[in-house]
Design brief:
The protein is α+β, with helices and mostly antiparallel strands. It folds into 2 domains: 6-283, 2-Layer Sandwich (Beta-Lactamase), CATH 3.30.450.350; 331-530, 2-Layer Sandwich (Heat Shock Protein 90). 50% of the residues lie in helices and 21% in strands. Strands 1, 4, 5, 6, 7 and 8 form a 6-stranded antiparallel beta sheet that branches. A hairpin with a 2-residue loop joins strand 7 and strand 8 (209-221). The longest helix has 73 residues, at 291-363.
């Protein structure tokens, strides 16, 4: 009742808060479930990549064992070995398998002639840089599947490139498979997609001990390597990134990206040929709410809004009921006040009428004069009563009282009247008494004064005299000369006795030879002194 808007808003806030907590709990549970799914995916992809790399290293170990026992790794021997592996079926993700013979720089020409004889085609050893005769050179010798793309790599000296050389040196030292860091395969040509290689050294025993014979290696296009695992695990609504080493943009090898938002993330380290690599799986849910959360949120907001509306209607109805009770109590008080006010005014009016009758009876000699005088004065009271009724017995403009009393004389002779003064509001009782005085002055002027002759003039001017008083001056000019020995009439007694008594100020009434002059002092009371109820 005291805060009509606070209660509905509080109810809305309470239900909305409960809804928000429910949505938060649902989202937290979904996030945990999503994180668990991402962890499972990261584990599955990491395990699959590791398994495929182990398969590759197993092939390389087998090749190293075979080639170390052979006096010469010929093209036919290598093709028989690769054919037995059935690479198309069991070695998905790799870009084939190759052999790179280890020679010295002074042997390059002999090497090129020998490979040309065996294969029928051979690229010159590249890059063609200045080498010392004893420098180690490891050119790509054979690579299957034998395709146009693979032939781009033939003759490339992998030992001349630092990243490849570092991996080959590590493999030579450990006699185990070793993976390179992030590189671009030579066979990529104009499409420089990153990848990596795994090297397995092949040694041959001799009189001088073991000697490096070459490397069995596998090139991997990182994107193909990752996609082979993703397709196998049917990853659809998650993003997967594959890094060489730690998670950094410069280490990114491949990625499988969806178009949706970004959610929780899980990462897993794997070892491929003794090199640490990282798989990062990220959900694509983003910031969107789950369907259950959306349903809960919409339902909660609907319930909160409906509850707020109902509470608002109830509080509004309570306010209206309270206002109605206040209104009825006020109306009852107004009716009581009106009854008292009406009783008071009727008594005052009857007292005025009785006084007028008594004075009229003493001043008339026959019944007709008595009736005429009484009729005019009661009509004057009636005219002022009409004005008070129109204003609902509130304040009445002084000018309107004057115009109402002079209306019978000013309708055809407006030029005979002059009214001037500010806007003044009179209390009901004061308006009645003032109107009666104007009526008597107008009646006298119409019979004996300025209103009875053409060219004469009645001037009525008023002005404030202090805060609570207005001075009204009645002046007649141009009328018949006023006799100084005239008898005292009823109008003079009515104005000087009844009106002066009601207005609580004396009336200055003078009968000058040029015309009647009258000065009245009318109170200007505050509305609270006479209004039934003050308007706020």
């Amino acid at each position: 009742m005291r805060w009509p808007r606070a209660v509905p808003l509080a109810i809305f806030a309470l239900i909305a808060g409960v809804t928000a907590l429910s949505v938060l709990a649902i989202e937290r549970g979904d996030n945990r479930q999503e994180l668990a799914e991402v962890d499972r995916t990261a584990l599955a992809i990491g395990s699959a990549l590791d398994r495929r790399a182990n398969i590759g290293t197993s092939y390389l170990r087998a090749g190293a064992a075979l080639f170390s026992a052979a006096d010469n790794v010929s093209y036919d021997l290598f093709r028989r070995f690769a054919g037995e592996l059935r690479l198309d079926e069991t070695y998905r993700g790799a870009d084939g398998i190759g052999w790179a013979e280890a020679i010295y720089a002074y042997e390059i020409e002999v090497f090129e002639d020998r490979v040309m004889t065996q294969t029928g085609s051979m690229n010159p050893v590249a890059p063609q840089i200045q080498r010392s005769p004893g420098d180690l050179v490891v050119p790509v010798t054979y690579l299957v599947p034998d395709s146009e793309r693979a032939r781009r790599a033939f003759g490339y000296d992998m030992y001349s490139e630092p990243t490849r050389r570092q991996a080959m040196d590590l493999a030579t030292q450990t006699n185990r498979p070793a993976a390179t860091g992030k590189i671009v395969l030579i066979q990529e040509g104009a499409d420089p997609e990153p990848g990596f290689l795994i090297y397995m050294p092949v040694f041959v025993s001799g009189d001088m001990g073991e000697r490096l014979k070459g490397f069995v290696y596998s090139p991997f296009n990182a994107d193909d390597f990752l996609n082979s695992v993703i397709n196998e695990n049917a990853v659809q609504e998650q993003s997967v990134r594959f890094y060489d080493g730690g998670v950094a943009e410069e280490n990114l090898l491949a990625e499988h990206q969806t178009e949706n938002g970004i959610g929780v993330t899980s990462s897993r380290e794997i070892r491929i040929a003794d090199r640490v690599m990282t798989v990062v799986v990220q959900s694509t849910k983003g910031n969107a709410l789950s369907p259950l959360s959306m349903i809960t949120l919409l339902f909660g907001l609907a319930v909160a809004s409906l509850s707020m509306l109902i509470a608002r209607l109830l509080t509004q109805q309570a306010l209206e009921d309270q206002a109605a009770l206040v209104y009825f109590a006020e109306q009852n008080a107004i009716r009581t006040s009106l009854t008292r006010e009406l009783n008071h005014r009727v008594k005052n009016t009857l007292a005025n009428v009785l006084s007028i009758i008594a004075l009229t009876r003493r001043r008339t000699d026959n019944l007709q004069d008595f009736a005429d005088s009484l009729d005019g004065r009661i009509r004057a009271l009636s005219a002022t009563h009409d004005l008070l009724t129109q204003s609902e017995w509130g304040t009445t403009p002084l000018r309107q009282v004057i115009e109402a009393e002079l209306a019978p004389y000013a309708s055809a002779k407006e030029d005979m009247l002059h009214l001037e003064g500010p806007d003044i509001e009179l209390a009901p009782n004061d308006a009645l008494s003032f109107g009666l005085a104007i009526h008597e002055l107008a009646t006298n002027a119409s019979k004996y004064g300025a209103l009875s002759r053409e060219g004469a003039r009645v001037s009525i001017e008023w002005a404030k005299k202090g805060e609570n008083l207005v001075e009204v001056r009645w002046v007649e000019k141009g009328g018949p000369s006023v006799s100084q020995d005239r008898k005292r009439g009823f109008g003079m007694d009515l104005i000087e006795k009844i009106v002066a008594h009601e207005l609580r100020h004396p009336v200055d009434l003078q009968f000058d030879p040029e015309g009647v002059r009258c000065t009245l002092l009318v109170p200007v009371r505050q509305p609270s002194e006479f209004a039934i109820r003050a308007k706020s």
